[in-house]
Amino acid sequence: MIEFRSVTKQFPDGTVAVREFSLVIPSRRITVLAGSSGSGKTTILRMINRMVDPSSGAIEIDGADISTLEPVRLRRGIGYVMQNSGLLPHRKVVDNIATVPLLRGEKRKDARARALDLMDTVGLDRALADRYPSQLSGGQQQRVGVARGLAVDPNILLMDEPFGAVDPLVRAELQQELLRLQHDLGKTVVFVTHDIDEAFLLGDQVVIFKPGGVVAQIGTPQQILAEPADEFVTRFVGADRGKRALHVRSEGGRDVVLDADGRPAGVLVGAAPTRDEAGAAAAAPGASAQGDRPR
C-alpha cells in the first residue's frame, strides 16, 4: 500500500505542482491519475520512487517513510514505464529488459533468461530479442518497456502515459494487455493519463486533478460518472455529452449499446443483462461496449 499524507510540492521558481495531496493507493489494484497537462499527476507519480521529493508531507510504502530510504535502491525495486518506452538505443531488446537486474548484481545469464521469459509474458516474439529498439514498431517498443519495468518482479509498477505515443489501434491492444497482465500478476499499478476513457477502462480507483495539483474527485469510474463532484468533473469526464448516455437494445439476438442519438456504440459480451444491469452498463463506458474487463 502507498499512502500520501498532506503532500505539497513547490519548485524553486515558486510553482506549486501539488497542494496538500492525500491518498491511499491500495495494493494489487490499478490507480489512475487523470488530468490535463500541468495538473501535477506526473509529479505525484515521480514522488513514489523519489525522482521528485515533496516540499512537505509524507509518503509511505507499506508503512515505511520513503524519505528514509536510499533513492537509487528504492527505484531499482519499483517498475517504471514511460511514454516513448525510454529504451537505450544502443542495447538490444534482451539487454534493455535485463538492465535493472544486471545493475542489482544478477548474473548475466540469469538476467537474459528472465528477459526472454518476460518477452513471452508481454506478448513479444523471442525472435526480436537481438534487435535494437529502432528496428521495432512503437507498440513493440512499449511492450519492451513494460517487460523492463517487470524485470525485477516489483510489487509496484509506475506507468507515466505509457501508451500516449502510439496509434489508437495499438493503444487499445496495449490497454488490454495491461489488464491481462494485471489479472495474472496482481501488481500495485499507478498509471498517469490525460485520457479519461483510458482512465475509466483501466482504473479500479481514479483520481481526477484540476490544474495546480488540486484533487477534484477520487472514486471508481462508476462512482465518478454517477455522481460527478462538480461542474469541472462533469465536463472532464464527458458526463454532459451524448456518448456517456448509453442504453441497450436487442438486435438480432445480440445486445447492442446505443448512444443518446441512437448510434451503435458497441455490443455487450457475456450474459444478457437484467434491466438494472443494463442501466449500470450505461454508466460504465469501458464495460458497456466491450463486456466486463478481466480482473
Strand content range: 15-25%
Would you give the CATH topology of the largest domain?
Rossmann fold
What is the number of E strands?
A: 13
How is the main sheet built? Answer: 6 strands, mixed
End-to-end span in angstroms? 19 Å
Describe the structure.
By secondary structure, the protein is α/β, with parallel strands linked by helices. It is built from 12 helices and 13 strands. It has a 6-stranded mixed β-sheet with strand order 6-7-8-3-9-10, sandwiched between helices. It has a 4-stranded antiparallel β-sheet with strand order 2-1-4-5, covered by helices on one side. A hairpin with a 5-residue loop joins strand 12 (254-258) and strand 13. The chain starts with a strand and ends in a 7-residue tail after the last helix.
Topology:
Blueprint (H helix, E strand, L loop, with lengths): L1 E9 L5 E10 L4 E5 L6 H8 L7 E6 L2 E2 L5 H6 L2 E4 L10 H5 L1 H5 L4 H14 L16 H12 L6 E5 L7 H18 L2 E6 L2 H7 L2 E6 L3 E6 L1 H6 L4 H7 L9 E5 L2 E5 L5 E4 L7 H8 L2 H4 L7
Parallel strand pairs: 3-8, 3-9, 6-7, 7-8
Antiparallel strand pairs: 1-2, 1-4, 4-5, 9-10, 11-12, 12-13
